[in-house]
Amino acid sequence: MLTTKHAFSGFSVDDIEAARVFYGETLGFDVKLNGMGILEITLPGGAAAIAYPKDDHVPATFTILNFAVDDIDVAVDELTAAGVTMERYEGMPHDEKGVLRGKAANRGPDIVWFLDPSGNILSALSD
């Protein structure tokens, strides 16, 4: 077993200032830019993530952060009001809001995906 004090996630971005605005202002998380130019993000529930600038950044092709929400429709409305667009993936039965309704089909959570300014994939889901 690995003995640790805590854990955090990290991912790259191509514009640290755009990431600061998105995670801090659009999503409303506590963020701070540390002395090394890395964005420290405090996630809901107290978990942490860092976003670091990378000149040759390539957006993640997988979901880097998942946000559990009580009501997917409220979450979509909040995101949309903040200017965030829901992603739609070919072959997936998204509704008019962009939600994949898994609960109604007894096939998992209701979920939406959206992108940060660097093209990294995020999700909001309710089970």
Structural key phrases:
five-stranded mixed sheet; globular; 127 residues; 2,3-Dihydroxybiphenyl 1,2-Dioxygenase, domain 1; four-stranded mixed sheet; alpha+beta; 2 helices
Give me the secondary-structure topology.
Layout lengths: L8 E5 L2 H11 L3 E4 L5 E4 L5 E6 L9 E6 L3 H10 L4 E2 L12 E2 L8 E6 L5 E6 L1
Parallel strand pairs: 1-4, 5-9
Antiparallel strand pairs: 2-3, 3-4, 6-8, 7-8, 8-9
Q: Brief overview, please?
A:
The chain is α+β, with helices and mostly antiparallel strands.
Could you name the ranges where pLDDT drops below 50 across 5 or more consecutive residues? Answer: none
Radius of gyration: 15 Å
Question: Superfamily at the CATH H level?
Answer: 2,3-Dihydroxybiphenyl 1,2-Dioxygenase, domain 1
Which CATH architecture would you pick?
A: Roll
Q: How far is it from the N-terminal to the C-terminal residue, by CA?
A: 31 Å
Helical residues, percent? 10-25%
Overall mean confidence score, pLDDT: 95
Q: Give me the number of helical elements.
A: 2
Query: Which oligomeric state applies?
Result: single chain
| Computed structural class | alpha+beta
Q: Give me the count of strands.
A: 9
| Overall 3D form | globular
Order of helices and strands: EHEEEEHEEEE
Main sheet properties: 5 strands, mixed
* CATH fold-level assignment: 2,3-Dihydroxybiphenyl 1,2-Dioxygenase, domain 1
